Amino acid sequence: MKKKILYIEDNEQNLYLVTYILQKSGYEVVGARDGQEGIAAASRMRPALILLDIQLPVMDGYTVARKLREAGQVAGVPIVALTSYAMAGDREKALEAGCTGYIEKPINPETFLAQMEQHLNERPSPGGTAT
Question: CB 3.0 to 4.6 Å from 63: which of 12, 24, 59, 126, for a disulfide?
Answer without folding.
Answer: 59
